[in-house]
User: Fold this.
Amino acid sequence: MDKGNRINLPIGVFDSGLGGLTVVRAIKKILPQESIIYLGDTAHLPYGTKSSDSIIKFSLANTRFLVKKGVKAIVVACNTSSATALKKLQEFFDIPIFGVIEPGSKEAVKFTKNKRVGVIGTTATIRSKAYQRELKRIDPGLEIHTKSCPLFVPLIEEGWVDNEITYKVAEIYLGELKRSNIDTLILGCTHYPLIKGTIQKVMGKSVKLIDSGEAVALFLKNFLKKKKILAKNKNPFYHYYLTDFPQRFKKIAERFLGERIEIKKINLG
Ligand code: DGL
Assistant:
């Protein structure tokens, strides 16, 4: 396909569920002329507690679906998938595929002054040590502190974003990070931007929070610009697909994205 046709093709974004809509929100803000096809694998949610083999299998199926839809690039919005499956996806598919780990880590390194960086995420993301490896690759002199926060995802999906129980849970999870004197904290999970306020309150104003979704949107913009394939769509489209579709997902989706949407259910076989 020549470049002229290619530039207006959509960007594919996938996540284990709906949290990746925070990444879509960031891409829409930073790249308003790009069309987007979103796939949330709600049938297999959550990824954060699953084995690496399962996460890789699901991620391959999600990528195959988006490639078949004719996207020009793919963003793996899911931190758990990015941490576990990105390399495999890049080996298997002949299309630019971006995860959130590298952009999030680069942003963190830009901001830290005392070289103490924290990372929070799902159990699988923290277990994979993907953020730790990437941060050390960029700056071997960093001191890295991590904490998995598995209760955050269900609390956020329940809509308990500004809630005293969530605050208490955050205080317990983040206590050690706070004491370790970090000045930068990576929100290494699609869901966490929704409780940014709570996390900031617990960590204190002096700690810079890095939203890996925003970071990957900026990363994508630079890539499209460099390759001269930035879209010029006057009326970009946004298509949303889920692999399972209980009624409650629509409400959660609208909370993550901040607007009403139509969702189609698909079967990845
Ligand atoms: N999307 C996942 C992530 O960013 C969180 C939800 C899940 O565990 O699947 O790690």
